[in-house]
Every structure is written in structure tokens, then in C-alpha cells.
User: Fold ATP-dependent 6-phosphofructokinase from Paenibacillus swuensis.
Amino acid sequence: VKSIAVLTSGGDSQGMNAAVRAVVRSALYHGLEVFAVQRGYQGLINDDIRPMDLRSVGDIIQRGGTILQTARCKEFLTPEGQQKGADNLRKRGIDGLVVIGGDGSYQGANKLSKLGIRTMGLPGTIDNDIPFTDFTIGFDTAVSIVVDAINKLRDTMTSHERSSVVEVMGRHCGDIALYAGLASGAEAILVPEVELDVHDVADRMSDNFRHGKRHSIILVAEGAGTGEDIAAQITARNGIEPRVTVLGHIQRGGAPTHNDRILASRLGDFAVRKLIEGDSGKALGLVNNELVATDINTVVNTKKPFNMNLYDLAMRLSQ
Ligand code: F6P
Assistant:
């Protein structure tokens, strides 16, 4: 390849900017021409593509969001949309594309690679729902935000001897709830991957209060129910009225942690090197601290396994 482009797609995540910076700077270092596509696949269809230089990615490694902006683009799900995108790249002589995004973005990259564009996918999502990588870019920051929020909630819950239900993001994947729950000593963690009877959670809560516990934190991934709903079920069972906090999009903003910046930098550089080698149709990740490239087709057709060991540990330690 002589010329590549980079885009961010789907829900944004902290560290996307660090990944864009790494792709651009690594491409320039290796003597490639590099372009940015604005607003994800929508920009690809609309031909919103501009050349990048060293300075276009200055002062962004520490910023949340994505300077390239992002979109969830329905038109790109159609063969016509995909063809238009591929044509817009080709007419500029761009033969490689790095897509930074989640599952939906990988599906698009897969299609483009079948149309002959060399593609590399980088896992950019707070959800940590992409298989063949231990972590996705943004997950570490999102978990830190949740843990920080729970620290604050705990102060006031303890003063009042109250219970808190905290709803976090994750429609299909409970990793944010799991990691934040383990890191903050949550009493129960409700995730889409594990069946849990809310009555048991409520009974345990009243037992714990009877035995001297002064606060209780219940974490709910949005895919396992709404915070309001879970709190209502708890009240109906044990009469305790938990306060509900929905952290929402706060989890997707703010400066990325050093872990996310380093992950993004390593994967962005790896993507460029894989394209230079002539590889295509790969989703990149870090497994046991090793950079790995997996067929994007395999990645989009595999569900990330849930870490039951961590879940059991969290439950054992939160008596
Ligand atoms: O995929 C990332 C994510 O933040 C999910 O955790 C959440 O369910 C969804 O995006 C929210 O989407 P939107 O920003 O479109 O409301």
C-alpha cells in the first residue's frame, strides 16, 4: 500500500484519538500518504475525506471523543453504500483503511475488504465486547469512571445507611459492570450473561444490613435491566428503597487512562505495519500482552466469552 485512510465509527470511546494519532504518525513514518474520513462510514459515502500530516494529530492523545467524529450509518449496511465508500477511496488512490470501532464497525470493514480494500479493524468501544483481544480501547477509562462514581456514592450511602443501584452501559456485555463491581466491592453485579434472581439480591441485602453492613452497592449492566426496575423489585421484596444512579454517557467521555492510550498507540502502529505487509481483513487486538491479528470474519461471528472466574471472585469477596 502507498496510501491509507483512517476512520472512527459507532459509539465513541476514550483513546480513539490516541489510535488515530498512532495510525497517522506511523503511516507518515513509513512514508505512506494518509487520509482521514470524517463521521465514520457516513463520511466515506459522502466523500468527506482529507489529507493528514504530522500536525493534524497534535495535542489529541489526551482528549476524549474523536476528532474524526463518528456516526452509526444505516446506508453503509446496503451493498450500494458499501460500493460508494470503496469507490470514494479508490478514486483518491487509497488502498488501505483502518477502522476504529466496535462490532458494527467491524461488519462494515469486513464488507469493504470483500470489495478489495485492504482493511484493519481496531477495537474502539467502552463495552469490551470484542473477542480476540483482552481489552478494547476505552474500556479501562470507562471502568475508572464508574469506580470513581461509586467511591463518591459510597460516602453518602454509608452516612445514611442506604443502598445504591448503579446502572452502567453494556447492552450485550456485562464487562463494565463486572470489572467496576469487582474493583469497588459491589454487593451484587447484574449482567446479561448471568441469570440472577433479584429476590436473592434483595434478601442478601436485608441480611447484610441486619448484620452491620452500612451501605450496599448493586451494579446493573443496562442489558440486564434498568436501574429503576431493579430498585423497584428490591423494594417490593424487602421494603428497602435503593437510590438509583444512571451513569449513562458520562462513561464515554473524559481523558483516556494511560492504559487506553498505550493500547491505542500499539494497535494503531500495528495496523499500519500489517497494511504495509499486504495483509487485509484483520481485527487487531492484544492477548496476554502480545499483538494479534484475527480474521475479521471470525471476530464478527464469535461472542466474547464472559469471565466467570472474575464474577465468582467478585461475589465471594463482597459478603
Ligand atoms: O457501544 C457503546 C455504547 O456506549 C453502549 O454501551 C451503549 O449501550 C450504547 O453505546 C449507547 O448508544 P448511543 O450513544 O447511541 O445512545
Summary: The chain has a mean pLDDT of 97. The CA atoms of residues 78 and 108 lie 10 Å apart.
